[in-house]
Amino acid sequence: MTATTEAGSRKRWLFSAPIDLAVFGGTPAIALVLVALAPRLGIGNDTPEWSWITGVLLVDVAHVWSTSFVVYLDPVEWRRRPLLYALTPIAVFVVGVGLYAWGPGPFWRAIAYVAVFHFIRQQYGWVMLYRARNGERDRLGRWLDGATVYMATIYPLLWWHAQLPRDFAWMKPGDFVTGVPMWLADAAGIVYLALLASYVVRAGYQLGTRRPVSWGKHLVVATTAACWYVGIVSTNTDFTFTVTNVFIHGVPYMALVYIYARNAAREPAARGGVNARVLTKARGLLVFLSTLWFVAYAEELLWDRALWHDREWLFGSGFDIGSGALILAPLLAVPQLTHYVLDAFLWRRSANPRLGKLLG
């Protein structure tokens, strides 16, 4: 293989073949293996504490805070859009207080649907990043790729809505609206199968005609389809939903943030910033993860002691804040909602001219 061929091969991956295969293939594989082993491990509907710590605390909550490394700890990015980054946390807090004043139900329902939209868009975003990386510009391919990965998430969600109540919830029980007819989910399933079949046929044709193959893109579509179907449709436990939903969302995102932030920290304009002093060092990854896990624990400690009172063994005894929840719940939701909003700007090439260069 020539040097040119090797370089072209590397460009077909977002990061590199080993990293892409690990985060987009290995993470879903681990999740699906855990689902298969759940009966042998004696896991029923309830999520065991070890999987809550791993999935929710160390991945889900931590990945939310990782956005700080590409915004608030990146001096170049901060100077580029200071008003957006300064006002977003304030705006989501104000909106959160308004929703919570209306009632905890509307507050959690709104967060649940914003989160659902964010999770769907992230899978679509991976596919679009792979298309850009591979130089795919055809409109038909873009439409088919996008529609397929969208329906890989939307069909299970419609099926979930039509089958309520289920033994798991996105945020809290009752956060999804009821009354969605089953025929709508069935119709979506037919459309989804047609799109998936068309996607497979097109991929097979490209392979047969020796055209460049975007294995990473195919991996994202396949694992999205598998994990969302298994976690929502074919099983009905909080454990399976957690491992299939959280892992494939949070782990690739943290890999993206770390690689992007590390490369950004090496730019001359970023010298002297926190990222340049931390992420470019030999122990950069360890410091990155340790920081995220520490902050995630601190956030969950406040949630649990003030509001949930679920894990005294991990966070200590709780206390009653009464009407203070009107302020504290929206305040603790600020990192999550800020992450959702800023993601819409950070990972689109049209809104972030540094993206292509900093992915490597």
Describe this structure in words.
- It is built from 16 helices and no strands.
- Residues 1-7 have low confidence and may be disordered.
- It has helices at residues 3-11, 17-37, 49-70, 75-80, 82-102, 104-133, 139-162, 182-208, 215-234, 238-265, 274-278, 284-308, 312-315, 325-332, 334-346, 355-358.
- Helix 5 (82-102) packs across helix 14 (325-332) and helix 6 runs antiparallel to helix 7.
- By secondary structure, it is mainly α.
- The chain has one domain.
- The chain is globular, with a radius of gyration of 21 Å.
The largest sheet is: none
Average pLDDT metric: 94
Secondary structure: number of strands:
0
Low-confidence stretches: 1-7
Number of helices: 16
Q: Rg to the nearest angstrom?
A: 21 Å
Helix content: over 70%
How far do the termini sit from each other? Answer: 21 Å
Q: What is the beta-strand fraction?
A: under 5%
Shape: globular
**Elements, N to C (H/E):** HHHHHHHHHHHHHHHH
Assign the structural class, choosing from mainly alpha, mainly beta, alpha/beta, alpha+beta, or little secondary structure.
mainly alpha
In short, what is this structure?
The chain is an all-alpha fold and 360 residues long. It has helices at 3-11, 17-37, 49-70, 75-80, 82-102, 104-133, 139-162, 182-208, 215-234, 238-265, 274-278, 284-308, 312-315, 325-332, 334-346, 355-358.
List the helices and strands and how they pair.
Blueprint: H1 3-11, H2 17-37, H3 49-70, H4 75-80, H5 82-102, H6 104-133, H7 139-162, H8 182-208, H9 215-234, H10 238-265, H11 274-278, H12 284-308, H13 312-315, H14 325-332, H15 334-346, H16 355-358
Helix pairs in contact: 2-9, 2-10, 3-10, 3-12, 3-15, 5-6, 5-14, 5-15, 6-7, 6-9, 7-8, 7-9, 9-10, 12-14
